[in-house]
Design brief:
alpha+beta, Immunoglobulin-like, 3 domains, 4 helices, about 45% strand, rod-shaped
């Protein structure tokens, strides 16, 4: 009798023991749908590109996944997320990445780190996924006559025939990377056919970009053109223009800009001779005055 009662009590106690949590296998994976994305940050663009983060539940129970995405100074939307994934299912998290217009050309590694947990508090090993984000390069240049702090375009000046002269042109790199710029006097052959002698020492040069470190101090260079104009033509044209062009050399880029400097050629030699003759030969009024003084002096004497 006692044994039967003890057995019955034992069975009752077993019925009150709470169910133990099932043996769980918590696992998940995630990856971006693209290996890389490119951001267009040129003027007029929006600097944004979007991709997707795919998260798969590879365990035997439902899980909640929390994640965070970072990448230098890029704006990531959303940067934080939380999703619930049923057993054997996958979810997609849309993600857009933005860089400021005019940002420097570079490659940024964007990384998402996430953790997962089931309803019983079992946790999976943290996972991470990354994507290469390329801030595309773009070219933009500006050309002016003169120096950066004293530029004027178009420019006009009078010069003496056959004299040694210099034209200065400044090229600004307004793109987002250090660019090699090709330099040229577009109408050099026409000017030489008219009697000019023109010398441009540099035919190309690398100019840094305007970044946070250099600001506007290092994204420009000034180039000098030496020229000797032809002799003054009394019966013809004495007005000429030098057209200076700067253009990008990167394959696929076509950015270029011109600046001009115009010159009137003067007959300085003839003008100088005339001025000299005026100084050497007394004027008629001066001769008359001297003669009158001489006559008066003679009269007083006699």
């Amino acid at each position: 009798m006692k044994r039967g009662i003890a057995l019955l009590l034992g069975l009752l106690l077993i019925g009150f023991i709470p169910n133990a949590a099932p043996q769980a296998s918590i696992a998940f994976s995630m990856s971006f749908s693209d290996n890389q994305i490119n951001l267009d940050v040129s003027p007029g663009a929006n600097g944004t590109a979007c991709t997707e983060l795919v998260i798969s539940n590879e365990g035997n129970g439902d899980i909640d996944v929390d994640g965070n995405t970072t990448g230098d100074d890029l704006v990531i939307t959303p940067s934080n997320f939380s999703v619930s994934i049923e057993t054997g299912e996958s979810v997609t998290v849309p993600m857009c990445i933005t860089a400021a217009i005019g940002s420097l050309h570079r490659t940024v590694e964007v990384v998402t780190t996430a953790n997962a947990e089931d309803q019983y508090g079992n946790k999976a090993e943290n996972k991470s996924a990354d994507i290469a984000v390329i801030v595309d390069q773009y070219a933009e240049i500006m050309v002016t006559y003169g120096w950066p702090d004293n530029s004027e375009s178009p420019y006009h000046q009078e010069v003496c025939e056959l004299s040694d002269n210099q034209s200065n042109f400044t090229v600004f790199n307004l793109g987002n990377y250090a660019d090699t710029i090709a330099l040229e006097v577009l109408n050099q052959q026409t000017l030489e056919d008219s009697g000019f002698t023109i010398y441009l020492p540099d035919i190309q040069s690398t100019i840094n970009t305007n970044d946070d470190e250099t600001a506007w101090d290092d994204n420009w260079k000034t180039f000098s053109i030496q020229f000797f104009p032809p002799a003054f033509d009394a019966a013809g044209n004495n007005y000429y223009t030098i057209i200076f062009q700067a253009s990008t050399t990167l394959q696929g880029e076509t950015a270029s800009q011109n600046a001009t400097a115009s010159y009137d050629i003067l007959d300085c030699i003839t003008e100088a001779e005339e001025d000299e003759d005026e100084e050497v030969v007394p004027s008629i009024s001066l001769v008359s005055s001297i003669a009158a003084v001489a006559v008066i002096a003679l009269r007083r004497r006699y």
